[in-house]
Design brief:
Elements (H helix, E strand, L loop, with lengths): L6 E4 L4 E4 L12 E7 L5 E7 L13 E6 L4 E4 L16 E4 L5 E6 L14 E6 L4 E4 L13 E6 L5 E6 L14 E6 L11
Antiparallel strand pairs: 1-2, 3-4, 4-5, 5-6, 7-8, 8-9, 9-10, 11-12, 12-13
Amino acid sequence: ASFTQIYLRDRQLWTSTLLSRNNSWVIWNGISSSPIISRDWRYVVFYGRSANFFTWASAAIYQTYVRDIQAWTTELISNSLTGGFGNWNSNQAAHISSGGRYVLFYSLSDNLITWDTNGVSDLFLKDRLLSTIQRVSVTYTWWELNSWSSIAQVSNDGRYVFYGSDASNVFPSDTNNIRDVFIAEYKTIYLDPPTI
């Protein structure tokens, strides 16, 4: 392949397996980067751009994907409200829970949720079981943040999200003008405002 690809190395069997394939086992014709493996070693989340993931995929925009190592399937994570691709780059893969249900990822897309107008890279949580996407980089009253977020992890049950942000409006009292680290607790995922 002439592009950067994702491989899984088995250090006991001394084998390498190419993971950046579509569901027809065709090698991607674009760039793949920043793989992160789940704690149960079954799922790999990464971002990339490829024109042959689907027939209507774009090689110009980076998306977030999950590769199921056991089922040998690749799933689009940064999908739009209509099921298509996000309309702008997913700039880095973030984190995937053990068991692979919850995936944290960053995206500049404004078509993943119903209201996204801040024009910055937001942090999203994909529930692969329910096929839902929730923006988690928000203020304690669910308003949009006024700057970028990065460096994130999610608990295995999806209840806690840890992330860093340059935003100054997560709390009204945030006046230090530097990046802060937050832990958001969602008592009922997708329903209750976060406790930050």
